[in-house]
Structure formats: structure tokens, C-alpha cells
Amino acid sequence: MNALAIRTNGLYKTYRTGFLHKKFLALNNLNLEVKQGEILGYLGPNGAGKTTTFKIILDLIRPEKGEVYIWGKRAYGSSYRQEIGFLPDNPYFYDYLTPLESLDFYGKLFNFKKSERIERSRELLLWVGLDNFKDRQLRKFSRGMLQRLGVAQALINNPKILILDEPMLGLDPMGRRELRDIIIKCKENGKTVIFSTHILSDVEMICDRAAIIFNGTVHDVVSVEKTLETEIQFYEVIYANTTGKHELIRFKEYKDAMEGVENINKQGLKMISFNPHRMNLEDIFIKQAEGRINRWGK
Question: Residue 127 in contact with residue 152, Cβ under 8 Å?
Fold first, then answer.
């Protein structure tokens, strides 16, 4: 059984918002476990509490109730943060610095010697595929390149745990693929990764498990592999009717679906597709979302 890299117990957090300082419930008895060596996708709509969870884990803000445990020990002070790397949503870098200069700056924050900073910076830029751009000013970087630099920044202290807040946000398909590959490499090098997102396909591609959060509470944690291996839920048949319009029929049983296909063929109609449908993360997410996304700020 894997040890727990992160465990939160009953986190509760509220904010005062707006002119009237109305209370907003950000986290409500949030319990989350991240296993050592896994990639955990943290799924939820905007405002669900993902970023607040990360800030509490990092001790950037304090919960009104609840505790955080890192490697089984209560997280106090700054010492445990040495083992965590963090990429915030929309990271800010100085436009006129180069990647080497940026990583050198972050290395200084960890009191690395100059020789260590140079070696580590070059190693990380090679690792995230930016070694050919090490002397280019960051104002000339694309969003995807800045995100890769952000991951390198989060890895500068060689942490055991990597927390990424919406790392795929705003990336084109190529940028998302490059970042997914980097996250997989982190796992292969023994790191524990948790990243927040609302892009379900990215979670299905690289995550071991997914935690689903709504209204500040984790409602479900699922094994991605087991979810994708579930039994067929129904069979979907699409055909063109006599006017050429596409019609869709769903059958619960395979036998009934085949009889439907046979009837379509007998009528001389054109079959468009025949697809078995398995339960996926989207189905689970939507099921959990029903009745839960309409009470923000209450």
C-alpha cells in the first residue's frame, strides 16, 4: 500500500467578498489523500475550491478548521515546504530575463551555490525542452513555453511533491501534449504530482486517480484505469433516415442493438456508426455535478 504524500483532514475555509462582505464558503470539510508516486487529477469547475486547497497545503493561507499532513506529519512552518514544488495559475515571470536568469534567481532563494544553480538550471531547461531558448528573453515566449519554464521553476529545489494549478489552461493541443509528457517524466523520476484542471481528457491520459470537487467538498475519488475498463453501459446506433437526416438510437443490450441494425439494413437505410459506450470521467463528473454547480456564494 502506497504511503500518503499529502492528506487533508476536514479543511474549512470562508472568505468575505463584495461590498457587503458576504461570506463565501470556499472549502467545506474537505478531505483529500494523495498517494506517494501517483499523478492525481484534481477536477472541478471554476470556484470549486481547487486553488484554495493548494494554498492551504502550501501554508499560504490558513484554514479556519482542519489539518494538513505531509508524509504523515502535521504540516507546520516552512521546513516541509522544501519538499514541495508549486506552479501557480498564470505564473508571473520578468519579461526581460532569460530562462537561465530566471532559474538562477529561484535557485538563490534556496541558497544554492552559483555552481549548483548553473548546473541545475541547465539540467532543468534540457529536461523541459527549453535548452535551445535558454538565452531568449521571456517576453518572446509562448504561453506553452512559459508553462514549461514554470514547471522547471517548481522543480528547482528537486522536490518530492509537485503541485500544479491549472497547468494546461490556455495551451494549444501541442502545448498540452508537451506538458503532459513532462508530468509523466516527473512521475517516472519518483515524484508525486497533483494538478488541478477541468480538462477531462488530460486526466484520462496521464492520471492514476481523479478527485472530484464541488462547492469546496471532495465528492468522489476514482481510479482512472478502472473507470476506463468498466463494462459497456449501452450501444449507440446512428443511421440516416429517408430524408438523409441522422437519427440516434441507444440500446441497453447487445442483442437488441444488433436487431436494430438488422432492421435498419432491411429498410435500406444507411448505417453511420455503431459504438459501445463505457462509463468515463465525463459521465462521473456530470453525475456528481447534477444539483451542485448552482449554489456559488451561498
Answer: yes
Residue 138 lies in a domain: yes
- Residues of the domain holding 87: 4-228
Q: From CA 114, how far away is CA 261, in angstroms rounded?
A: 70
CATH number of the structural domain spanning residue 175:
3.40.50.300
Tens-place pLDDT, residues 31-57: 999 999 999 999 998 889 999 999 999
Q: Are residues 81 and 213 in the same domain?
A: yes
Alpha-carbon distance 201 to 35, whole Å? 21
Q: Which element (helix H / strand E) includes 104?
A: helix 99-109
The beta strands (E) that lie in 64-182 are given as: 65-70, 73-74, 84-87, 161-165
Q: Quickly state the pLDDT bin for 293 (edges 50, 70, 90).
A: low
Quick check: is 154 in a domain?
A: yes
- pTM for the full predicted model: 0.82
Closest CA to 51 of 26, 82, 22, 83: 26
Q: Please check whether residue 298 lies inside any domain of the structure.
A: no
Count of the separate structural domains present in the chain: 2
Q: Is 155 exposed, middle or buried (0-12, 13-18, 19+ CB in 10 A)?
A: buried
Query: What is the model's pLDDT at position 291?
Result: 63
Residue with cell 509562448: 142
